[in-house]
Design brief:
The chain is α/β, with parallel strands linked by helices. It is about 30% helix and about 20% strand.
């Protein structure tokens, strides 16, 4: 059986109004200790287009500062799991993150945008916390929806 993996801490401050919730960091993200570190993941390109901020030209610390300044938070549905590889379908033996505690840090948190269907499994729980929830197309390279279609969905969810 795969070793237990531990996720990343949340990116959040008191200004957060929208939580972007992934499933669990990829192998590349865990190795780098950075969200969405796989070079083919479209997350940072999509946020760059939506926010109008050159995130892909920034170092990681600057990206996170820009995300916080935009009122966004980033975390994952699962804090611990077992998984071989990076596919969500391989995730086993999960321990959910305590998303409810984020509302203590960010009292204005009102919406959760789930990055893909696996994160979207948390939608009912997120709604029970009083968060408006939307499940968005995954930014993973494994999800082959064209970039323009992903961007349109993300832009609509993050702009409203």
């Amino acid at each position: 059986m795969a070793d237990r993996l531990y996720g990343l801490p949340p990116v959040i401050d008191a200004r957060a109004r929208v939580l972007i919730l992934g499933s669990f960091p990829s192998e590349a993200s865990l190795a780098a200790q950075r969200y969405y570190a796989h070079p083919q993941n479209q997350f940072w390109r999509i946020l760059e287009a939506v926010l109008g901020v050159p995130l892909t030209d920034m170092d990681y610390a600057a990206r996170l500062a820009a995300v916080r300044a935009a009122g966004l938070a980033i975390w994952d549905a699962y804090g611990r799991c077992r998984r071989i590889g990076s596919l969500d379908s391989a995730i086993r033996d999960v321990q959910a993150n305590d998303v409810g505690r984020l509302k203590e840090i960010a009292p204005q948190l009102r919406r959760a945008c789930c990055n893909g269907k696996t994160a979207g499994k948390a939608a009912a729980h997120l709604a029970s916390l009083g968060l408006e929830t939307v499940v968005l197309p995954s930014t993973s390279p494994a999800y082959t929806l064209p970039f323009a279609a992903k961007l349109e969905a993300w832009r609509k969810a993050l702009s409203s």
